[in-house]
Amino acid sequence: MTDNTAERLCATLRDVFSRVRETRMEDVPILNTRLAVEVVGMRPFGDDWLSVLVTPWCMNLMLLPQRAEDAGDWRPGSVSRHVFPSGAYEFIAGEEEGIGRYRMCSLFSPMFEFPGQAAAVATAHAVLDALMAEAGDVAAPAGRRADETATLAQRMETPLSRRALLRGALRGGA
């Protein structure tokens, strides 16, 4: 997997979801018109590509198969659980012409709390940093000492909520 592959995949995702923005989402009242479609942090993760998709209507973690044939069981609407260093998260499968099948984990929707693109992109980077941090690397929740933070194995047993993920990422200075 080369940087060129990641760049092409980012461009494809951006183009497809920009087209969704211009067609199906054009008159939907949940659009934050200060935001544009952007793909943040595309990187290999296991047999998939991982990134954050920022759009004017949502922000999602995205998993795309590195090989299209590996997405055969990713039926749109099906739910799967994926384990990251920070914990396990549920993803829903989707499909778009031009991309094929993918899995997404909703982070924000709608996107009105973001004053502009820079804030949304900074949050996307913080999410990826927190997602890939070992449980002990993320700041302990308020009222708990760092030595009381659950181990990675314990956290994998109980999925971390998106809100807790973001709170930890933002508190940890990411």
Report what the structure shows:
The chain is of the alpha+beta class. It is 29% helix and 27% strand. It is built from 4 helices and 6 strands. It has a 6-stranded antiparallel sheet with strand order 1-2-3-6-5-4, sandwiched between helices. A hairpin with a 2-residue loop joins strand 1 (38-45) and strand 2. The two termini are 27 Å apart. Residues 138-157 have low confidence and may be disordered.
Report low-confidence residues grouped into runs of 5 or more.
138-157
Radius of gyration: 16 Å
Percent strand equals: 25-35%
Largest beta-sheet details: 6 strands, antiparallel
Shape: globular
The helix/strand class is: alpha+beta
Total DSSP helices: 4
Helical proportion, percent range: 25-40%
From N to C, what is the helix and strand string? HEEEEEEHHH
Defining traits:
single chain, 174 residues, alpha+beta, 6-stranded antiparallel β-sheet, 4 helices, 6 strands
In short:
With 174 residues, the protein is of the alpha+beta class. The chain has helices spanning 3-22, 117-131, 152-157, 162-171; strands spanning 38-45, 48-54, 59-65, 79-84, 87-96, 100-108. Helix 2 crosses helix 4.
Question: Which helices and strands occur, and which strands form pairs?
Answer:
Elements: H1 3-22, E1 38-45, E2 48-54, E3 59-65, E4 79-84, E5 87-96, E6 100-108, H2 117-131, H3 152-157, H4 162-171
Antiparallel strand pairs: 1-2, 2-3, 3-6, 4-5, 5-6
Helix pairs in contact: 2-4
